[in-house]
Amino acid sequence: MAAKLETTLVHGGEPEPRIRGAVALPIFQSSTYLSGAAEEGHYHDIRYVRLSNSPNHEVLHRKLALLEGGEAALVTSSGMAAIATSLLTILSSGDHILLQRGVYGGTHAFALRELKDFGVAVDFIDAGDPSSWERSLRPTTRAIYVEAMTNPLLQVADLDAVVAFARAHRLVSLIDSTFASPVNFRPIERGFDLCLHSATKYMNGHNDLGAGAVIGSTSLIKKIKERLDHLGGVLDPHACFLLHRGLKTLALRVRHQNESALRIARFLSEQPSVARVHYAGLESHKDHARARKLFAGFGGVLSFEPRGGEAAALRLLDRLKIPLRAPSLGGVETLITLPAKTSHAGLSPREREELGITDGLIRLSVGIEATEDLLEDFRQALDADAEKRA
Known about the structure:
Helix content: 25-40%
Distance between the termini: 62 Å
CATH superfamily of the largest domain: Type I PLP-dependent aspartate aminotransferase-like (Major domain)
Strand content: 5-15%
Number of helices: 14
Radius of gyration: 21 Å
CATH topology of the largest domain: Aspartate Aminotransferase, domain 2
Shape: globular
């Protein structure tokens, strides 16, 4: 009988028997290991920390593959290391990729700059309009790349259509599922070839490490690992330990964040001083029906625009007491930020305008604090601003 998600998070992939009886996996703080005759002469079989094959790495790889329903997995030093290494493995000079419009700013910049420097052509597509994708196809198209939910507007692509399109045209389908996490969505089970995560976010959940992950078939992960071996974006053993520990509470954290974010989004959508709320859990969101069909929960991130633009947004941030003003997301602390100044600061004002990211847009990553306390904090901050303007 297949174990439920919560059980897999705790016990899946663990060494059997436990190492010297240790319930918690020890940190193998060793860069190199003894090798036998079988490994000599086979570079990628040598046990060495840069080759991502320490005991800490191996347990994480097994657990992540089980969580996502993939054959194999690989951890990296950051989400961007996972994204960049995967794309540089799938694509070669002269190739072409279809990329969802509105992806994470780092991915957008990597595609427009680094990929183009490597001779890879990029076209951005409306991932919610499958009928338009074929117009962007070329004989050299090799892959299609989307996100489970975009940052920061929480748009949801037609993900089932992406899989069907990729299969019909023999493309590699890649999805960044960071915002969903395996609790809310498991792309491999829906037919995606590669699932990527910034494990810095929900998977670790404690804002104390940088990590990435990629899950897929054994053959694809083997190729990506060999590229990573040469690029060097390896996750160190102590960070592996922290990620491994954080994963065990993933389901508890994310389900609370799902519920809390939905309540906060509904509250904000009812406030006269808030012009717009972006959260796929709201019936008013244009992708709500699709999100309900795809996801077990809508995630812990939402964004909203107070009336009055950037000035009003800055006043609100100053008045809030619980959310910490910091980038990143998915941790136990509630974080709040202006995407125009953080995640999408690398884009030009025109590029941000085309994506719908205004200077006054606020992104909120809901933590695990009491929802009632967060609601009360937003209430007092909004009321104080309304009183001042009156």
